[in-house]
Amino acid sequence: VQGxxxxxxxxxxxxxxxxxxxxxxxxxxxxxxxxxxVVTLARFAGWCAKGQETPDPxxxxxxxxxxxxxxxxxVGALERLLRAVPWLLVLDGLDEVxxxxxxxxxxxxxxxxxNAYEGCTPEPLVIATTRPQGWGGEFAGFLxxxxxxxxxxxxxxxxxxxxxxxxxxxxxxxxxxxxxLRSSAKDETVx
Length: 191
Prior knowledge:
Order of helices and strands: HEHHHEHEHH
Helix content: 40-55%
Strand order of the largest sheet: 1-2-3
Number of strands: 3
Distance between the termini: 13 Å
């Protein structure tokens, strides 16, 4: 499982840790609600290269406002929001940025963004995805996590927990979902 498929597992694991901390009645439990932003790095790198961007923290903010939020939020308002609320930034597909120069420019802009917002943003969460063969040690200071494949039982258990969270009052619907997944797992063209 790679890319955005991995994000659900990582965020799910973070929520499980959060719930465990909450059960222990820790004084500090991070908020669950975050401003979500997903940046497809190949598109961002192309956008940076097209504009011949130089490293500046506002490059990523402008990209988020224009390309991710589709101008629904103005750049200045987004900048204030990023400093005021917790956010989740998913940087997806580092391995899919083809040109070295484009990759370097994009990474410099992202690093500039991190430096500008370090310490002034309440509880940011950043997840960067890449295939292992596409990672050259970028994003120093990140904790690299390697996902392993679920076996069939783990997959079905995870799917059941998602179905329970999504349909807590619909046991028959959850049963149908489980039956379909088990049936699909037996079909080699689907599994």
